[in-house]
Amino acid sequence: MSFSSYDSKPWLARYADYVPEELPPPEKSMVDLFEASASRAPEQDAIRYFDAAVSFRELNDLADRFCALLASRGIEKGD
Questions:
Q1: How far is CA 18 from the centre of its chain?
Q2: Lowest CB count within 10 Å: 2, 4, 15, 59, which one?
Q3: CA count, 13 A, side-chain hemisphere, 42
Q4: Closest Cα partner for 67 from 57, 75, 59?
Q5: Mind listing the pLDDT tens digit for each residue in 59-76?
Q6: Mean of the pLDDT values across residues 7-17?
């Protein structure tokens, strides 16, 4: 195994003193956090771009449809 500048983490020298060098992994996945937001505030904007907006409900529905499409084409978790 070769040693690289990535292994020595040179960016840590630029961190402020209060910034931890490592963070623990989150307790919930991004999917869990997103679905919680979609349940809590389904009509709230999840994405806003200029005058266009997509609610959490719409985005969750789009994500579910996309997942169904992938599954219908034989793509499985882990692929």
A1: 25
A2: 2
A3: 5
A4: 75
A5: 999 999 999 999 999 998
A6: 88
